[in-house]
Amino acid sequence: MKYVFLVSHGELAHGMHTALTMFAGENRDDILSVGLKNGMGADAFAEEVKKCLSVTGSDDEILLFADLVGGSPLTTAANVVAEMGLLDRTVMCGGMNLPLVLSAVVMKDDTDTEELIQSLLPEAKDAIRRFQISGEEPEEEI
């Protein structure tokens, strides 16, 4: 199985997880999430990550998405992944957004992992655009 594992500061990972269930279905065992709570130490967060990843099997892959490259959730999760011997089966990306993780969930089972990541990253960047509403009323045609 390929797991999508979301880590973040605060509740972002859990919020993304909830949003994913709205699009991809509830009761998905292949989506995991952990948030670094305010005041939580790195050791406590590492334990949460270990607990979350304990469901993975020896043949499973992990697509780890984090809110910030170099942030504590990603670096701590990366250390735990390495300690658990999962590094060779894990791909990590920072700067997650909903289009990125939704596409990962939808496409992960039908696409090679490296190919998947190569297609997801440009798609995630392209999903960020300015949204502008014009104040002008459209002219009515006669």
Please characterize this protein's 3D structure.
By secondary structure, the chain is of the alpha/beta class. The protein has a single domain, classed as 3-Layer(aba) Sandwich (Rossmann fold), CATH 3.40.50.510. Helices cover 43% and strands 18% of the residues. The protein has 5 helices and 4 strands. The chain has helices at 12-24, 42-53, 72-83, 98-107, 113-126; strands at 2-9, 31-36, 61-66, 90-94. It has a 4-stranded parallel beta sheet, sandwiched between helices. Helix 2 crosses helix 3 (72-83) and helix 4 (98-107) packs antiparallel against helix 5. The termini are far apart. The model has no long low-confidence stretch (mean pLDDT 94).
CA-based shape:
globular
Proportion of residues in β-strands: 15-25%
Give the topology string: H per helix, E per strand.
Answer: EHEHEHEHH
Q: What is the number of helices?
A: 5
Number of strands: 4
Helix share of residues? 40-55%
How many domains comprise the coordinates? 1
Largest sheet, order of strands side by side? 2-1-3-4
Parts with pLDDT < 50 across at least 5 consecutive residues: none
What's the CATH topology name? Rossmann fold
Structural class: alpha/beta
Features:
142 residues; Rossmann fold; 4 strands
Short description:
This protein is of the alpha/beta class.
Please outline the helices and strands.
Elements: E1 2-9, H1 12-24, E2 31-36, H2 42-53, E3 61-66, H3 72-83, E4 90-94, H4 98-107, H5 113-126
Parallel strand pairs: 1-2, 1-3, 3-4
Helix pairs in contact: 1-4, 2-3, 4-5
